[in-house]
# Entry
Amino acid sequence: MVACEGTGTVTEVTPRKSESSGIELTNFAIEKVKFFMQKENGKYLRVAVLPGGCAGFSYDFAVESAAGKDDLVFDFKGLNILVSKFHLPMLKGSKINYAETIQGSGLVVDNPNATKGCGCGHSFG
# Structure
């Protein structure tokens, strides 16, 4: 699968999977996050699940400089992702992409563990 970045450049969005994490990131997501990480001087992207949102849980993404004692670190083509060992079961099988739409841009999670979602797409249950 490919996507146009809006600059006429076609970018591969085939998911890349870290075998030990069970999470997939598209090449487009990896490259976009790497770009933002350089601007933030971050070492890791934290992918978390937080209680809240209209459907019960929401995704949270943050740039971190260090891993915590309960964090697992996964490498995606040089992009280090942090996931708490407590959050990993809720994220297993998820595919993360970076979407650019007229309504906004950002990371989008397709989570097979979600049994319900909200209309805005930011929370799940």
